[in-house]
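User: Hi! I have a protein structure encoded as tokens and I'd like to know what sequence might fold into it. I'm fairly new to this, so please keep things simple.
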């Protein structure tokens, strides 16, 4: 009896019969879109979470001197992820030569990576981000 009543009500409202298969497909499609959205948001956060920190370093006149072939320089760059593009970086290597760029010679840089904080002389070494934060006053996310 209740099934007959539902059929009559659908007929009065003009509602087409719902296809259970298409409804399941819509639900699964929504779940997939949601999961993709979460993945993209997480990827963006992981690659850009230090953008503000890196721009603060630039505002505080902090520079990193490095060499393209230096493994420790690469390690330091990886700590920032995609945000390293905002860090003031001076490439000291001249490809095809053993000489350093004039700017690096003028700063007195001999070991890499080296960080210069304002007008102070450069300090050598790979610095953890929290140490860079302490030296510059820039806050980490």
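Assistant: Happy to help. Inverse folding works backwards from shape to sequence: for each of the 141 positions I chose a residue that suits the local structure. Here it is:
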């Amino acid at each position: 009896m209740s099934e007959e009543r539902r059929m009559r009500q659908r007929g009065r409202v003009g509602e087409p019969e719902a296809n259970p298969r298409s409804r399941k497909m819509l639900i699964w499609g929504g779940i997939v879109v949601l999961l993709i959205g979460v993945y993209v948001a997480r990827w963006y956060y992981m690659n850009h979470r230090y953008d503000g920190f890196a721009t603060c370093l630039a505002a505080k006149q902090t520079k990193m001197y490095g060499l393209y072939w230096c493994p420790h320089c690469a390690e330091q760059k990886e700590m920032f992820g995609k945000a390293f593009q905002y860090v003031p970086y001076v490439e000291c290597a001249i490809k095809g030569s053993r000489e350093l760029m004039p700017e690096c010679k003028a700063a007195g840089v001999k070991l890499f990576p080296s960080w210069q904080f304002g007008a102070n002389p450069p300090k050598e070494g790979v610095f953890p981000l929290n140490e860079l934060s302490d030296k510059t006053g820039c806050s980490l996310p």
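A useful reference point when you look it over: The chain is about 50% helix and 10% strand. Feel free to ask if any position seems puzzling.
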